[in-house]
Amino acid sequence: MEKPQGQLVRSLTLQAATILVVSSVIGSGVYKKVAPMTHDLLSPSLVLWAWVLAGFISLCGALSNAEIAGMMADSGGEYVYFKRIYGRFIAFLWGWSTFAVIKTAAVASIAYVFAQSLNSLVTLPHLSPALEGFEIGLFKPLENFGVKAVTILLILVLTWVNTRGLKGAAALSTNITLMVVVGLGLVVISGLFFGGGNWANITTPAQGYVDRPITDFTFIKAMFAALLSAFWAYEGWNTLGFIGGEIKDPKRNLPLALSGGLLVIIGAYLLVNFTYMYVLPADKFVDIFNAKNDIAAVAVIRHFAGPIGAAILSAIILVTTLGCTNSTILMPPRVYYAMAKDGLFFKQAAYIHPKYNTPNPALWIQGIWACILVLSGSFDQLTDMLIYAAFFFYGATAFGVFMMRIKEPDTERPYKVWGYPVIPALFVLFCVSLIVITWYNSPREALIGTVLMLSGVPLYFYWSSNDK
């Protein structure tokens, strides 16, 4: 006898959907990534321009994504889009990549920063040096054991919270997002008015900086490396499409939530990172990156507010990363549910809980794999790998705007991308460039990401043959 099934319910308003965009994106990157970006560019003004450029490019992607999302507003996000645009195989490849690397690595990375922040407040335990140095291939699964154990515990607890219903999980994200906004506001106000900074910190580059033309390949490499960091801070804007089937009036509200939420995020990131660089000189951020044992934002607050201020900010980061981890866990299982219904994923993932109307098996499959990824790598390795993988498919979605304008010119489009064809074309071109430069700058992360993306191909043919 088949288990009783529930169904996904349209319960999210425009306000709730916009908040989910913001809470899905604002996580660890706004606190950590200014240090590696300064290390790459050595110039505070260039770092701020990198934030602007990454925000503009992400907005181009979101505007392009919004046209497709408005046409095909249903749970599953790009899986639904790609199936209609490119066919089952590309749709599967995106869905599998989302599971294998993109969103599960995002969950692991954000939760990892939560544990790092907790570690700055309460020292977490370590195993013996021999055990923590144990290697399996390229990985040290027991390294930094206490931080990884807390990371895994957080993933499991929040996965359970999300099995209790969408409204409760969304309400958690809403409440935490309000606290995050207040926390970032306090950072900006305290830093600008009481941080003892000066304009010279914004205009003075770090030691070793060489002024180069924008056409110089060394400059291009450095800028793309910095953008890779910035894109991690913007990652997550597309996940709202995963729950299109649970948004009220999705053809109107989904594009509005995507674009509106991202504009809020761009403004917040510029203001916060300007504050960091106003308070501390560029050389300090290079030192923070090289030390590998501090969060840049905490170092800024510690500079003028001492240990108590640093502890308060660490607590704010705990709240921020808790909310972002929760939102990142919430949405992707709807993709695995859509795939499983098509016979292209583990069949258990097609089950919806009859009481809570949530895809509980899909949530637990995701949570377990995210825990395995926690054991496999460090924060920066995971984020570089997932951004590289994500931009394959971001570009494919934007290219889909052109494909659908040709294939289905008469289909209703509640929203048409502003600046067509320039905006989607620029975004596609940038995605291709980022992929090429990442192979040059970070070949290890690019290789691992590619292997994980392609690891599902044999399963596709297996599941396809069973589905016939």
Report what the structure shows.
- With 468 residues, the chain is mainly alpha-helical.
- It has 20 helices and no strands.
- The protein has one domain (14-467): Up-down Bundle (Amino acid/polyamine transporter I), CATH 1.20.1740.10.
- The protein has helices at 14-25, 29-32, 34-41, 44-71, 78-85, 88-121, 129-132, 145-162, 166-194, 200-203, 217-234, 250-279, 282-291, 296-330, 333-341, 360-376, 379-407, 422-441, 443-454, 457-467.
- The protein is globular.
Question: Which secondary structure elements does this structure contain, and how are they paired or packed?
Answer:
Blueprint: H1 14-25, H2 29-32, H3 34-41, H4 44-71, H5 78-85, H6 88-121, H7 129-132, H8 145-162, H9 166-194, H10 200-203, H11 217-234, H12 250-279, H13 282-291, H14 296-330, H15 333-341, H16 360-376, H17 379-407, H18 422-441, H19 443-454, H20 457-467
Quick overview of this protein structure:
This protein is mainly α and 468 residues long. Helix content is 73%, strand content 0%.
CATH class: Mainly Alpha
Overall average residue pLDDT: 83
CATH architecture: Up-down Bundle
Helix/strand class: mainly alpha
Low-confidence stretches: none
> N-to-C terminal Cα separation, in Å?
23 Å
Shape: globular
Cα radius of gyration in angstroms: 21 Å
Q: Give a quick account of the main beta sheet: strands, pairing sense, barrel closure.
A: none
How many helical stretches?
A: 20
Q: Work out the strand percent.
A: under 5%
Order of helices and strands: HHHHHHHHHHHHHHHHHHHH
User: CATH topology, what is it called?
Assistant: Amino acid/polyamine transporter I
Number of domains: 1
The CATH H-level superfamily is Amino acid/polyamine transporter I
Multimer state: single chain
